[in-house]
Design a protein that fits this description.
The chain is an all-alpha fold. It folds into two domains: 70 residues, PSPTO4464-like domains (Diphtheria Toxin Repressor, domain 2, Orthogonal Bundle), CATH 1.10.60; 73 residues, PSPTO4464-like domains (Diphtheria Toxin Repressor, domain 2, Orthogonal Bundle). Helices cover 70% and strands 0% of the residues. Helix 1 packs across helix 4 and helix 3 packs antiparallel against helix 4. It is elongated and about 75 Å long.
Length: 187
């Protein structure tokens, strides 16, 4: 019986070419994230010195093709190091991305709440019922001004932004992602 060398079930042939390519692309993506990080955040990460130097080299390059080539070289340099050397970096970047997603989601919720306040008077009553300490007159004035600003394109959206800041402060004070929900009875 003629057997191929790949037919040996006891032999470990290592990762496939497809898996090697996926790993290489993952390192390239990590290298791109490191280059895009602000210098203050990059300084907090524990990186090998040669990788840190090469990141500085990539940042200095402005030509698109040359930067792409240098980024590939950075990834190659990173692959020479043990994968465990970058586990902490991956974890830190993952936490940053998760935190960023949470902050973005919270901002979108606040924007939706602001839009509900502008579109529906019942939303204002629900907010006031939930937080009786709010300055009702100031809040109503902001909503009225924001509606005017929304209808006239030449006016800067000062009240619109201030309304967002009021909602943001309210959500930070209550430590909840949504300072009010539902529609309680009107007071």
């Amino acid at each position: 019986m003629n057997r191929n060398y790949t037919d040996d079930p006891d032999h470990d042939y290592g990762p496939t070419r497809t898996q090697q390519r996926r790993d290489a692309l993952a390192v390239l993506e990590l290298a791109g994230q490191l280059v895009d990080l602000p210098p203050a955040k990059l300084a907090k990460l524990e990186l090998p010195d040669d990788v840190r130097d090469e990141i500085a080299n990539v940042r200095r390059i402005t030509s698109h093709i040359a930067r792409k080539r240098q980024l590939a070289f950075l990834a190659k340099l990173m692959r020479r190091h043990d994968t465990a050397a970058f586990d902490a970096v991956r974890a830190a970047l993952g936490e940053n991305r998760d935190r960023q997603r949470q902050e973005t989601a919270a901002m979108h919720r606040l924007e939706a709440q602001r839009d509900r306040l502008l579109d529906d008077d019942q939303a204002l009553h629900a907010l006031i019922a939930q937080h009786p300490e709010l300055d009702r007159q100031h809040l109503r004035s902001l909503i009225r001004q924001a509606r005017v600003e929304k209808d006239s394109p030449n006016k800067p959206p000062r009240a619109y932004r201030e309304l967002f800041q009021v909602l943001k402060e309210l959500s930070q004070d209550t430590d909840s992602p949504e300072p009010w929900s539902g529609s309680p009875e009107i007071r």
